[in-house]
Amino acid sequence: MKIEANKRSSTLEIENLSVAFGQGSKSAVVVDNISLKIGKGEIVGLIGESGSGKTVASLAVLGMLPRGAKVVQGSIKLTNDPLLERTDDYRRSIRGDRIALIPQDALRSLNPTGKVGYQVGEPLNLHRSASWAFARSKAIELLRSVNLSDPELRSEEYPHQFSGGMQQRAMIAMGLSTEPELLIADEPTTALDVTVQAQVLDLLRAVRDQHDTSILFITHDLGVVANLCDRVYVMYSGAIVEEGPVDQIFSNPSHPYTQGLLDATPRIHGAMTGLTPIPGQIPLPNKRPVGCRFSDRCLFALPQCASTPKPITVGDNHISYCLRVKELGGSS
Amino acid sequence: MQGKDEMNFLSKFNWIRHGLLTIGIMIVGTVIVAALTAPIISPYSPYDLDVTMMLQAPSADHWLGTDELGRDVLSRTIFASQISIQVALVAVSVGVIGGTIIGVLAAYFGGVTDLILMRLMELLFSFPAILLAIVLMASLGTSILNAMIAIGIIFIPGFARLARATTVEAMQQQYIEAARSVGMSHSRILIIEIMPNVITPLLVEAAVAFAYAVLLESALSFLGLGAQPPEPSWGNMLNTGRGFMAQAPWLSIMPGMALFFCVLGFNLLGDGLRDMLDPHLRD
Amino acid sequence: MLRLIFTRLALFVPTLLAASIILFIAINVVPGSAARSALGVDATPQAIMRFEALNGLDRPLIVQYSDWFIKAMQGDFGKSFQNRVAVGPEILKRLPVTLELALLAFLIANVIALPLGAIAAFRHRKILDVIITTFATILGAVPNFWLATLFVLLFALIWPILPAGGFTPFLSDPKANLIQMILPALSLGLVSSSLLLRIMRTTMLEVLNSAYIKTAHAKGASERVVLTRHALRNALIPFFTVGAVEFGFLFGGVVVIEDIFRLPGIGSLVLVGIINRDYPVLLGSALVITIVVLAANMIVDTIAMILDPRQIHAGER
After folding, report:
1. C59-106 tens-digit pLDDT
2. Alpha carbon distance A62, A94 (integer Å)
3. Can you say how many angstroms the Cα of residue B70 is from the centroid of all Cα atoms in its chain?
4. For C221-259, what is each residue's pLDDT tens digit?
5. Is the pLDDT of residue C317 over 60?
6. Inside any domain, residue B255
7. Cβ of B8 under 8 Å from any chain A Cβ?
């Protein structure tokens, strides 16, 4: 029963989304036909290197695509609400309200001339017609909920007076202020050191546990994904190459790129077999190989790889887009 | 939606950008050609009086009319470009040479030298330029030559600051370390390694300074402190024109128009050069 | 932060000192020029000597300078070479006129520059931006004295709706005063506005590209909110700092504008000083103008510092 309800009303449902920059002959498809689902209370990771299109995809969800970028096909639904069919004003009204962004660089993402309390409470002022006094008091509660000590004092301070970890937690508090259905966290832990990272991840988990908030966690850091996420989508050069529950992805990586990422990740536990970076570079959007876009860097590429990749089920909810996955026997 | 343009497809705008540069080059070119060929292209001599023809409105004989002594305004306007160009040339040269020396020395030797020199430059910079020029000319004397010197002195701080910045940047490059370690003398390093990198941004600033020099010279002659009549300068032509505004408004309009276009041309040139040579300075 | 402000104030005095030295050196670049200029080319050596003795010009320069500066700081700017009238009171009488002109011009310049610069940045690379930037470029090339002349031609002669000059003190007739100030302030302010506009546009563009503006958008703030609540204050800080340079240009223009509109301010006093080679007059009025410019710079710098919370705590950490 519960599974069916989740299936029907996933918080975020992206179908066949493609985003292109530019027009005509100069256009480049940066997000290529991706489909993605996040259920209520799920933490879903979107892994990819820079240039994979993961950030652009998140901007498409937010409705914040930069000038020159356009959705060329597909649909984005927020709890059955077809966002792409809505007006700009509507999308702005839900931005910061039903969908909240936790951006990467917390220090630079905070207005240096504004008190933290005001910034944290601002979404309430923008979307719930809250007075500034009310927004401020709510902000203090929020800062307390993200484990900032002396929240009354903190809310009157300015961003440069906060440490890196405190800033990131303030950003999370800001995102939570309107109790959004979906949190998009864009590399929130990249600039933090390990202990602070762990605190932030715990915080996100607590948010999900207490509010049933869905989280789209965008990162290139596999360790963090393993720690936090329920399910994972692996993105390469604009397309999804593998998707599945996190334990399966890690125990049974089913795409050469995923395997490559794992090999290139330093790990403390387990045998340190040496880091093997993936040879080559992510291709530019208009210089991709035909068919499987990883084929020009893939050790297992064959001529058939020039055909359009198709989803192949390799486990429970675990899908790979490598047509050789079965014969390569999953993890190598 | 505000945001970074991943690929800029407003090529129309880029064309306009370079269009401005082209216009600037055209205008400056016209002014320089006019200055160089003034005796050839002017219909009359700028000094030819004809009291019977004074204060005539623009006509077929005198395209821009005549002034209070019957002289042809068009010819005088053309010849005035010579003065503007000369003054600007000398002034900017003085400024560039003096400023570069000071700036490069300050950057190269650093420490106290740098501190003192730059504080001095900063102070000079905050003076209203005309004021300093006037005070200088009180002592030097109020002639065109002194105007050139005074304006040149005013330009020194600006160029010094620029030269210092580019020198500091150049010095942080590896090849200076390499040259030092091989035992190159200070002066060789300065001339061979540092100077070439300093020249380019200096050129851009020089173009803008040119415009300002023309403006300053005109302001000074307008006040009666630069070129003296009968020498034609746009500034002093506008000044005499003041007295005849009711009877002969063209005297107040035409030379000013020439002045405006000259300044505009150099400004466009400077802006255009900056956009081309130093793209990271663009927005 | 108070400490920072005090430091600024404390720096004012040595800066003023240095500026006065520069002016003094500038006017004495050619030694002996004072007497020769005042008396003319045919002056006999005896007349020159007498003149110099009378005016203390035969003393060593350093003595002359310190004497002049110390007295000036007490308000005694010496006596005019021309008519032996005390310069100080004349300067004092004329100061309000210049201040009023500069203030009005500054106001006009900012009223134009701030909104247009912000809009141009907001509509970066779109038609509106191109129009505004082109307009600013063209305006910036207009010589302010030519603009003033054109204004007089247009609004005082052809359509006589505004006066061509003259000055009534504000306190005796505010309306007449302001009407007389319209053309002068416009001539000065319009040309200044072009530089300020471009500075505002640049600083605003930098701000708009910042991560925190992206955050504001991500919170669903409207363009108006982003601009007024987030972008403006952050853009004003560098604007003030960089824009302070405009004061020098503005006050330079005062000399010419006061001459054209026959305003009895310090600018025209400078002119009187140079035309008559009246050194005490020239030196005194130049010094006062410099003081005003330096003070204005300092005030604006301080405002920028106060607006910036990062500065407020800089002294404390």
Report:
1. 888 888 888 888 888 888 888 877 788 888 889 999 999 999 999 999
2. 9
3. 31
4. 998 888 888 999 899 999 988 888 788 888 889 999 999
5. no
6. yes
7. yes
**Domain ranges in chain A?**
4-106+181-328
Q: Kindly report whether the peptide bond that precedes residue B230 is cis, defined as omega within 30 degrees of 0.
A: yes
Phi and psi, residue A82, nearest 5°: -75, 95
Q: How far is CA B166 from the centre of its chain?
A: 21
Q: Do C222 and A108 touch (CB under 8 A)?
A: no
| ipTM of the complex model | 0.88
pTM reported for the whole predicted model? 0.85
Q: What is the CATH number of the domain that holds B30?
A: 1.10.3720.10
Strand boundaries in chain C, DSSP class E? none
Interface touch A158/C309, C-beta < 8 Å: yes
Domain that holds residue B253: 24-36+64-281
Of C198, C83, C182, C76, nearest in space to C137 by CA: C198
> Which chains pack against C, by 3+ Cβ pairs within 8 A?
A, B
Answer whether residue B44 is part of any domain: no
Task: Give the CB-side neighbour count of residue C16, counting CA atoms within 13 A.
Answer: 21
CA distance C82 to C34: 12
**pLDDT (tens digit per residue) in A242-267:** 999 999 888 888 888 888 888 777 65
Q: What is the CA radius of gyration of chain B?
A: 23
Residue corresponding to tokens 């300067």: C91
Does the beta carbon of C234 lie under 8 angstroms from any beta carbon of chain A? yes
Alpha helices in B183-233 (DSSP H): 186-188, 195-222
Per-residue exposure over C224-235, b if at least 16 CB sit within 10 Å of its own CB, e if not: ebbbebbbbbbb
Q: A25 CB near a chain B CB, below 8 Å?
A: no
Q: Would you say residue B267 lies in a domain? A: yes
Residue type (1 letter), B38: A
CB atoms inside a 10 Å sphere around CB B173: 12
- Alpha carbon distance B147, B219 (integer Å): 11
DSSP secondary structure letter of residue C79: B
- CB proximity list for B119: less than 8 A, separation 6 or greater: C18
Helix (H, G, I), strand (E, B) or coil at A236: strand
DSSP, res A45: E
φ/ψ of A95, rounded to 5, equals: -75, 125
CATH classification (class only), A4-106+181-328: alpha beta
User: Is residue B3 within 8 angstroms of chain A, CB to CB?
Assistant: yes
Query: How many domains in chain B?
Result: 1
Answer whether residue B52 is part of any domain. Answer: no
Gap from B4 CA to chain A (nearest CA, Å): 6
How is residue C87 written in tokens?
Answer: 């310069």
CB B99 within 8 A of CB B159: yes
Q: Nearest Cα to C145, choosing from A236, A316, B255?
A: B255
* DSSP per-residue codes, C38-69: HH-TT--HHHHHHHHHHTTTTS-HHHHHHHHH
Query: What whole-number distance in Å separates Cα of residue A327 and Cα of residue B59?
Result: 94
